[in-house]
Fold:
Amino acid sequence: MGSDGVYAERSEMTDVHTPEQRSFNMSRIAGRDTKPEMIVRRRLHAAGFRYRLHVKDLPGKPDLVFPKAGLVLFVHGCFWHMHQCKYGKPVPANNRDFWAQKRAGNAERDKRHREALKDLGWRVAEIWECQTKDAAKLEKQLDKVIQLLREP
Structure:
């Protein structure tokens, strides 16, 4: 805390693990069936919506696909996809160039996938990990998705 009683936003993370331990940890990070994705899936299923998961023949293998509604939904991790929230802003202290390129590449790939899906006639929606951590934000985002699902 600063002398003025205000917490400064931290923009760097110091790695407390050895390179081997960090590599092991990173290799265990799931790309599907993540906690945020499962939260969204349960809520939409409980609301009566049915979907397909991780459709391989669509650009980006969207997390949830609603074929009848022509809608795909991505549930993105804030850090990995560079969301502009407190979870997406930290910059790793070690191997900065690698992580900057990796994360920027993810964000650019997301953009290409969104455009390709739109070109194929799909509507694209996103829910961010941080939105699943706050009940009010999640409800607001799910309301938007449900509205899209109910539109003809």
User: Anything to note?
Assistant: The CA atoms of residues 5 and 107 lie 35 Å apart.
